[in-house]
């Protein structure tokens, strides 16, 4: 048995000891306050970035590129992973979280500009992002370097995923959809690990968002208002 597995089991034992009495109210049902859709990057600790240690508080979804879409025979639809809590547990808030330096966005950018060769599974994931990022790649400013281009496309991708949720007939109109970017690279000028709100229900204007939501005005930032 590898040391990694033994370490994971030891960490789980500590977890079980700390959480033993935290499941009493959620053993038989869940009614999470929000569904969060984050990139599955190992640097993005989905519960920890919200300070969450309460079972039942967040319904967490993770995949490369923080996608809310999947392909079916009926075409592209909202992923069941994201739709389930919205449709069946009374959850009325969805938060799409991208992050600076996203590898999935980088790979999609490279595929759109140069072409890539990846294993089928990765190619499928990139293929889900490509149609949503094509417009962003075409609109990038000419004077932005590679890192700047990627981080602008991170915002663009969050916008497109929020757009899918807002426009889907499967998502109730009263569901609030928020898009944010998690920054651990000092891109936005705050502390590393801060979330920066870039989109609320499809609205992306920093000025408008700060005016409409004064309580979080200092957390609204964008690199790019295209």
Describe the structure.
The radius of gyration is 18 Å and the shape is globular. It has a five-stranded mixed β-sheet with strand order 2-1-5-6-7, with helices on one face. A two-stranded antiparallel ribbon has the order 3-4. The protein has a single domain (30-219), classed as 3-Layer(aba) Sandwich (Beta-carbonic Anhydrase, Chain A). 38% of the residues lie in helices and 19% in strands. It is built from six helices and seven strands; from the N terminus they run H-E-E-E-E-H-E-H-H-H-E-E-H. The protein starts with a helix and ends in a 14-residue tail after the last helix. Helix 3 packs across helix 4 (120-139) and helix 4 (120-139) crosses helix 5 (146-167). The longest helix is centred in the last third of the chain and has 22 residues, at 146-167. The mean pLDDT is 96. With 226 residues, the protein is of the alpha/beta class.
SSE arrangement:
Layout: H1 3-19, E1 34-39, E2 58-63, E3 69-72, E4 75-78, H2 80-88, E5 93-99, H3 103-113, H4 120-139, H5 146-167, E6 176-183, E7 194-200, H6 206-212
Parallel strand pairs: 1-2, 1-5, 5-6
Antiparallel strand pairs: 3-4, 6-7
Provide keyphrases for this structure.
226 residues, alpha/beta, Beta-carbonic Anhydrase, Chain A, five-stranded mixed β-sheet, 7 strands, 38% helix, 19% strand, EC 4.2.1.1
Low-confidence stretches: none
Strand order of the largest sheet: 2-1-5-6-7
Can you name the CATH architecture? 3-Layer(aba) Sandwich
Number of helical stretches of at least 4 residues? 6
Main β-sheet description: 5 strands, mixed
The general outline is globular
Distance between the termini: 51 Å
